[in-house]
Design brief:
By secondary structure, the chain is mainly α. It is built from four helices and no strands. The longest helix has 22 residues.
């Protein structure tokens, strides 16, 4: 089993590094051009893969996009929880006013469709 792992771990690392290298945008590649990084990873699987992972790609901090803080001036748009997102809350308000404009209740019944004994909300 250990012999298999000694073969599979470097192979998996090489495959990961190669796919990561060819799928990285050109402006995020550091030090040498992307085609040379790909050749380095293919010709020297262990050394090339580790080199690519450590020095080849410009990486951002892990939690940069998930801080839950709204975007400010000069920063990229970041994830915001739905109950804190003004656009989402506004869309809910628009949906609610759209239903009342048609004269429908929650069941989708208009005043003419409702049973007279049901009451105003269909209850």
């Amino acid at each position: 089993m250990l012999r298999v792992l000694m073969f599979l771990v470097p192979l998996a690392l090489s495959v990961y590094a190669f796919i990561d290298c060819i799928s990285t945008k050109d402006e995020d590649v550091r030090h040498i051009p992307k085609p040379l990084w790909a050749i380095l990873v293919l010709l020297f699987p262990l050394v090339g893969s580790v080199s690519w992972i450590i020095a080849g790609k410009r990486r951002s901090p892990a939690a940069e996009g998930w801080s839950g803080v709204r975007s400010g001036a000069g920063r990229s748009r970041q994830w915001v929880a739905p109950d804190d997102n003004p656009e989402f809350l506004k869309s809910l308000g628009e949906e609610k006013t759209g239903e009342t404009d048609r004269g429908e209740d929650r069941d989708g019944k208009t005043g003419e469709d409702r049973d007279p004994d049901e009451g105003p909300k269909g209850g």
